[in-house]
Amino acid sequence: MSVELFGNPDRAAVEEITTVTCIGAGTIGGGWAAYFLARGFRVKVWDPAPDADEKLTRLIEAAWPALAELDMVPGADKSNWSLHTDLAEAVADTGFVQESAPENLELKQALLAGIDAVCPEHVIIGSSTSGYSMTEMATETSHPERFVVGHPFNPPYLIPLVEVVGGQATADEAVDWAAEFYSHIGKSVIRMDQEVPGFIANRLQEAQWREALHMIDQGEATVEQIDRSITDGPGLRWPFQGPMLTFHLAGGEGGMAHMLDHFGPSLKSPWTRLEAPELTQNLRDSVVAGCDIASGTRKIAELVAQRDAGIIALRKLTASLTSDQESAPVPSASVPTGEQTSAEPTAESTVLQTYTTEVSPEWIDYNGHMSEAYYVLVFGFATDQVMDQLGLDEQYRSSVGASLYTVESHIRYLDEVALGSRLHVTPMLVAAGDKKLHLAYEMHVDDRLVATEEIVCLHVDQHEQRATDFPAGVRTRIAGFRTHTPEWSGRRLG
Ligand SMILES: NC(=O)c1ccc[n+]([C@@H]2O[C@H](COP(=O)([O-])OP(=O)(O)OC[C@H]3O[C@@H](n4cnc5c(N)ncnc54)[C@H](O)[C@@H]3O)[C@@H](O)[C@H]2O)c1
After folding, report:
1. Which of 165, 238, 250, 484 could be disulfide-bonded to 192 (CB atoms 3.0-4.6 Å)?
2. Within the chain, which residue ranges are assigned CATH 1.10.1040.10?
3. Which residues, 6+ apart, have CB-to-CB distance to 340 below 8 Å?
4. Can you tell me the distance from the alpha carbon of 321 to that of 458, in angstroms, rounded to the nearest whole number?
5. Ligand 1 centroid to 106 CA: how many Å?
6. What is the mean pLDDT of each run of 10 residues along the chain (494 residues)?
7. Whole-number pLDDT of residue 242
8. pLDDT confidence of residue 340
């Protein structure tokens, strides 16, 4: 049961927060720091490890390209962080604290009390704990009402889910604020009303993990077989439909009702062992040896890069499938009718995605650098990606017969681009009208700004050959994106 408390009058609205603090900068705290940086925050980090600086630098460097693919806001600065060994210094002027210290109850109790003692009272403090309840962690604090669990998943810079739940002494208002803050920064939030051991997702993961360990312990399956049973099996369905909808479909036309009636009796068959196996030295060694075989010659950094590339590809795919579903029911073959109302903007959709590509040999001119025509081409690809994100994708264009036409553009060529360079094009929505968009782009190679473009485009009904209003669903989506005018924008386009 949560305690109702008045909101703290000094507490800032979530969109006013510009500085956050990460307590602990290991796998999870460092991942949070990278994510906050990519979302444009100034990040203050506290970590007692002597090598915290180097480890965090390495982690941010490794995470940055992945963040550039999905969640980065224009102007994000990967060096906008400072490391502190003094807690009070780390939480001074902060708008939010994310604690990600080792999973040890006494340590967390003492640490949360220490943060509480020096952190301004209006600031909400979230913990990344994988399983402790806030009720047990906040026992030593003087202001337990502002402590919440904000449980992320590894890597927190790529996995959207955050489970948010308070302890018995947490104010509902604090849980609401935290849930709103995580949503505001692009996370997919599950706000839980009561504390459940392991929250939701870890509870499900743990059950599977226990069964896997049992099977290895009994010699019934190898590490490799267990991993492949998921990656080549049910794991392929889970990014799109969770375990419940998956079983709904397993019931055929009868859906979940048939599934339960048909397989209900077998639920009682002794398939699962539920109790965890004893973690003997032998079991530990078998699991570790199996993972070594499964990793082969791939080092951890390589496995991380492979995992990140996979998650990015999947997130892009699931986003595009969702946008297809949202833009599908357009009845007219000619004129957009404004029927597409299902496209509610999500927190994640408030920022246009960065387009990334590599310079190919045929783009290089006689001076040994990318020819100017290909700058235009790359900006064009970035516009295609913007159109997909706005719901003006291939399916929309073919079913509705309307598309975006660029009617004016202005490019500044600022620096040369060499063969093999990786180009990152960040789009910004400058302004939007009923049938018109004003977009701006920055093209970067690493930290170098190499070109900018501004365009004005019109939404054109291709049958009638005239500009026409965006349908309601697309307008709703456009309204969900933040507008931003870059300081270099010198033209009054359109
Ligand atoms: N690793 C995961 O997959 C995962 C997923 C979700 C949540 N979590 C949770 O996140 C938290 C951090 O886990 P992690 O995997 O990043 O651990 P980690 O060991 O990688 O990092 C912990 C960091 O905390 C620092 N630290 C902060 N306060 C400390 C103190 N008082 N004493 C010693 N070290 C201190 C350490 O120096 C280290 O850099 C835990 O609560 C964990 O349960 C972990």
Report:
1. 165
2. 202-262+272-296
3. 326, 327, 329, 330, 391, 471, 472, 473, 474
4. 25
5. 14
6. 56 94 98 97 97 97 90 90 97 97 98 98 97 96 98 95 97 96 95 92 92 95 95 88 84 81 78 82 90 86 85 82 52 28 41 87 88 93 91 82 91 92 92 91 93 94 88 81 83 55
7. 84
8. 30
Distance from the CA of 95 to the center of ligand 1, in angstroms? 21
* pLDDT of 220: 95
Decide: 31 in ligand 1 pocket, CB within 6 A: no
- The protein residue whose alpha carbon is closest to atom 25 in ligand 1 is 24
CA dist., res. 175 & res. 159, Å (int): 21
Output the residue whose Cα is nearest ligand 1's atom 3. Answer: 154
Residue 163 beta carbon below 6 angstroms from any ligand 1 atom: no
Residues of the chain with CATH 3.10.129.10: 333-479
Long-range CB contacts for residues 312-316, cutoff 8 Å, separation at least 24: 312/66, 312/69, 312/70, 312/158, 314/239, 315/70, 315/158, 315/160, 316/69, 316/70
Burial status of residue 376 (CB atoms within 10 A of its CB: 0-12, 13-18, 19 or more): middle
Q: Which of 442, 438, 444, 437 is nearest to 487 (CA)?
A: 442
| CB of 152 sitting under 6 A from ligand 1 | yes
Q: Quick one: which of 43, 44, 40, 42 has its CA closest to 75? A: 40
Helix, strand, coil fractions of the chain, as percent rounded to 5: 45, 20, 40
Would you say how long the chain is, in residues? 494
79: which DSSP letter?
T
Q: Whose CA is nearest to atom 15 of ligand 1?
A: 27
What residue's CA is closest to ligand 1, atom 12?
Answer: 100
Q: In 287-435, where do the E strands start and end?
A: 355-358, 402-413, 422-432
Beta-sheet strands, E only, within 341-488: 355-358, 402-413, 422-432, 436-445, 448-461, 466-467
Q: Are strands 42-46 and 19-23 parallel, antiparallel or unpaired?
A: parallel
Q: Which CATH architecture has domain 14-199?
A: 3-Layer(aba) Sandwich (3.40)
pLDDT of the residue at 342? 32
Pick the CATH number of 333-479 from 3.40.50.1820, 3.90.226.10, 3.10.129.10, 1.20.1260.10: 3.10.129.10
198: which 2 tokens?
Answer: 């392991």
Establish whether residue 109 lines the binding site of ligand 1, counting it when its CB lies within 6 angstroms of any ligand atom: no
Q: Is the peptide bond before 74 cis (omega within 30 degrees of 0)?
A: no
- CATH number 1.10.12.10 given to 202-262+272-296: no
**115 phi and psi angles, rounded to 5 deg:** -65, -45
Closest CA to 43 of 52, 34, 51, 56: 34
Note the pLDDT of residue 350.
66
Distance CA 383, CA 406 (A): 10
